[in-house]
């Protein structure tokens, strides 16, 4: 239950208290509910992919860990580096958004006590926010206590926030029936901006669903990850989508979309109908939502740092886990200090677009990982240096068995070894050997075809979304690029649908958990949607993110790559690895 509440609390932020007015006025009109529904379906595509990988490979590293296994260390490093940026800026932005809302309870926008109020430092031209920094330190201390305690508090805050939203739904429905739902009787109709406006609204409200992926980062702290993680992801997304749609149905019906207050749409809607006191209740809901989102932003980052440090890409300092609380306390404190410093000194609102890059990159790479897992799963795994001695001993034993089949043991051992020799001799039969070689060749060709098809899908999606989004190309050139990208996408998708999936997918990771449906169509749709949203984040956002990613490349080259746990490993087949791990654990 706490896992489910954690997902809901991380997802249901204060965005719904603001997005309702902005998106209804500028994009969707009365069709705002459909915008939330379409965005929820798009988010569900990523949720399905997350659910399978979280079930198969439960790890605190979440998307970083999945891409590390399926794609490779370099790509995984960039994903983890982007997520570090996302969670730090996201937590800081949320913390700075709490203090203006708290000030409303003290009489106005600038009515907080002096010690908590914002102050301008004239010689630096900086507005500091002590309240935001104090809240970050408070949440950091709570996260250091333990995962159960922090998720319990987050669960209480989430329940209170949901109660406020239920009040909005119930009271708003009553007012709507009393006034005749005037918002749905406007002259522009249900789709005043057309279908394109509704879809544009879906792209905007999609970011209100970001947060469910934080459930996957608690994989090592839940009792049954194969059951709890997929259920937590699905439950949090379903609850959030239902609440968003019901709130939008009510608020759009109470006030015509063109008359909505873009900043405080819900409280102003109640104020128009004589319920001034509801403003305080709605504001308290916004504060609770922001506090819950702050917890959801600071919870995953220490666990991603811990996973990266375990792989040697960051100093081992970040992988230390407290024996008492079973929490990466040092990583949590470092995360809290960085987020509090940003919240205290910087106005991070202009960096808000950078928050979405890490999440959308993670969503995209998780969908690609599903395709790789199903069609070309890793057939070899790295064996740590500590187990390489066991690997060499097993090889020597196999050679001795083949070289001296009768051995010096008892009659039963000799009989079994003679059977092994008979099997070896039968395999050396020319006809059987030819058939085995043909099967191996067919499997090798299938894997090559699948890998090329996945690459074709990714390249086609990139060309299609980029050419459809740019405005400086001539119309004819844009159409040609769109057609070319679409053909690549369809060719790759068609080939993946035609060839068989790899048999090794059944034994990869933990079996018996959630299985993503409609593969390859669902992951390909997920890649297409997330790439389109990534490209449309804007050039300024990508320039700032590019600087951060280049810094990450240098850190990886000069530290991560030289200290990586993969530098002294031997790659062995999955069967050999399972045998070695089994023998080492039994001994």
TrEMBL record:
Membrane topology field: Multi-pass membrane protein
Q: Where in the cell is it found?
A: Membrane
Give the main localization category: membrane
One of its Pfam families is: AA_permease_C
Domain Cationic amino acid transporter C-terminal residue range list: 514-564
Q: Which GO terms describe its molecular function?
A: amino acid transmembrane transporter activity
Protein name as catalogued? Cationic amino acid transporter C-terminal domain-containing protein
This protein's species is Aegilops tauschii subsp. strangulata
